[in-house]
């Protein structure tokens, strides 16, 4: 396969002004007629028109009214080239596709008898021949024709301008999108669906129509998505002064979808997982996911659609920025400082769980990659979540107002354009009169920087010095890295636990509790004056940069921070450090057969936090979750998954035994009687209560089992029902009956059946044989991505001690299913292939098994580029 490089970018030879598309929709044989007006791009030397096309049958090709015969154009691989074309061209192209055979879920496909499209990144070329690249922006008119009884609803981007009957049972609808857009934002839906709709008045007084489209039986699950949409619209008006630019905005739910959702102009298409919710079927986490994803796709309307990417190397320009926006939206929706901190802690956990490993593994890439084989492999946590961290750092460096100025300038300069990450950085810099030249390295250098801190207190001079040193480990193609521009937020705690008022050399920031130090060199020392006592430093507050912070904290300092830090993120972080130190020692003890013990100090600190009623339940829950097995593994030179699992289980068991009365008290104190509400406070209470339950069910006695069984039977919502079932499964008690009744109650709710598979897949008692058995269940299918992920991915990524079984049998299972999935859906298969990314870090025996499994996949004939790129980078 061919590697594509950012440095090879050339502007398009032809620009497109208008696109008229006609669809005669038929599952087996859809005819697509396209009429495209092109003109030569003065910025290009080439007079060749290059169109992309895949899995298409070309029926007819006309240029300025004349039919082109083979020989007058070149068809090779996935491009169609017309050489030496006139300056102004009208192309008329007729193609055939078979949507029902399209299992890739990219392009036009059928899901549960309905038609949907997914065009990002390169799916439009599976619909018609077109210059399918984001810097070609055009105005679209779309005519849809289909059987009226089967497909009563016909939707596309923009405004509905005409509809009617065609005779012979068919009907049509014509849509026009007033805004020019890249092809990846094209969408259509032809389906039997119903909608919840609402007229909504924008701040400007303009009225818009909002719709959420779902299958008939799901109309009782659309309220939260609709509410989230309205909240998103209001938030973008208030926080960024950005208004909805269309008269109609639609969300459509589909059960077969490769990722979360898609921001097609005016016609967002969503995985059902991020639309459908009511208290019976959805958990608090599902509700939060819906709010975040509805917000995310809506916010793309400006950051992504109005201003889009010049090329796919710039993907984080829209994704990092839009994730940052949805994170801020979710935080503002909670509204309290502590709620905001809880969302921030969740973001840090995601980074450590998934992005740091990616940045240290074979698929490491900069936020703006320099090359790729398959763009679909680059919708990664680095592009999204690290990209969001990079955007957040602008706000940390420039302040909220400065950030807003930068956003305003960005839109002033680039509305209607396809631009680069550098353009965003320039807008931020210019709007604030700042030099952000060095900041560019966050885009160009891969890897997670390590910041090492050392401190020195001078009691006589009353100064406290913090010396920060940075380095970044080498990654593929990048041996030596230059220093980053890193904002390091710092506070100093006195012995009483309170923040000291800080005075630094920076004149404008006297007396604050937190200052942002800007580390730009390899090593810098920052001095604080008038420090009356040796303070405890709280470094990297609010996780002000996506780095690893090393500082030799003593246990006493960490305990002090864990009890007092006014910065909730660092308060949580102190607890994680306390736990991690012990978990690493316990893991070594397990591996070397030494006795295991947990100190009373740590237990006491956990107890104090658990019962501290001044803290939000949501925060307490997060503070009590131990670092995951994956995060522990990342700290080790040689990973022994079973030892990590046993060590962590030992710590959980010991805490559970020591804190039993407190856990029970919290279990009862955090009930949420009455009607279910997904608000943050209630969700936090449920989270703490259910964490308590999960601890109580470690080595349970009859009383605890009874508690869980009662919660399972009487739960008034899915959060509590699922939590009880998970706790029971993990307890090792006999749960056959519970699993059976849960399945019976929800067998017609696909998203709940996914949960049913997922909770079994991730249970430490589930080995690969049990997973294979579950695959024989009639409800299992590889063809539905949500279902495949629920069982297979939750096993390979969520059940490390079983996935890494000593005999390598689970790796064989992995190889087999990467290959099987690849034949159906390369994008999903390539995600599964990533489960083996960190294989070189395991024990030699496990490595040997993993290498064999990787080689087995790599050797398979007819592998997609998607999977081939992942496995060859892993083996390289
Ligand atoms: N932009 C889409 C992702 C498309 C992924 C294509 N493989 C969803 C989102 O980030 O909003
Ligand atoms: Zn996005």
Automatic annotation (TrEMBL):
**EC numbers for this chain:** 3.4.11.2
Show where the Peptidase M1 membrane alanine aminopeptidase domain sits: 224-442
Substrates-to-products reaction catalysed: Release of an N-terminal amino acid, Xaa-|-Yaa- from a peptide, amide or arylamide. Xaa is preferably Ala, but may be most amino acids including Pro (slow action). When a terminal hydrophobic residue is followed by a prolyl residue, the two may be released as an intact Xaa-Pro dipeptide
- For whether the record's keyword set contains Ribonucleoprotein, the answer is no
Q: Which cofactor does it need?
A: Zn(2+)
Describe the location of the Peptidase M1 alanyl aminopeptidase C-terminal domain by residue ranges: 555-876
**Domain Peptidase M1 alanyl aminopeptidase Ig-like fold, chain residue ranges per copy:** 447-552
Give the GO molecular function terms: alanyl aminopeptidase activity; metallopeptidase activity; zinc ion binding
* Ranges for domain Aminopeptidase N-like N-terminal: 21-185
Record bears the keyword Transport? no
* Any single biological process term in GO: proteolysis
Gene3D superfamilies to which the protein is assigned, alphabetical: 2.60.40.1840, 3.30.2010.30, Neutral Protease Domain 2 (1.10.390.10), Peptidase M1, alanyl aminopeptidase, C-terminal domain (1.25.50.10), tricorn interacting facor f3 domain (2.60.40.1730)
Q: What sort of enzyme, by top EC class, is this?
A: hydrolase
Keyword tags:
Aminopeptidase, Hydrolase, Metal-binding, Metalloprotease, Protease, Zinc
Checking SUPFAM superfamilies in the record gives: Leukotriene A4 hydrolase N-terminal domain (SSF63737), Metalloproteases ('zincins'), catalytic domain (SSF55486)
Spell out the family assignment given in the record's similarity comment. Answer: Belongs to the peptidase M1 family.
NCBIfam families for the chain: pepN_proteo
What does the protein in this record do?
Answer: Aminopeptidase N is involved in the degradation of intracellular peptides generated by protein breakdown during normal growth as well as in response to nutrient starvation.
Recorded protein name is Aminopeptidase N
The scientific name of the source species is Rugamonas rubra
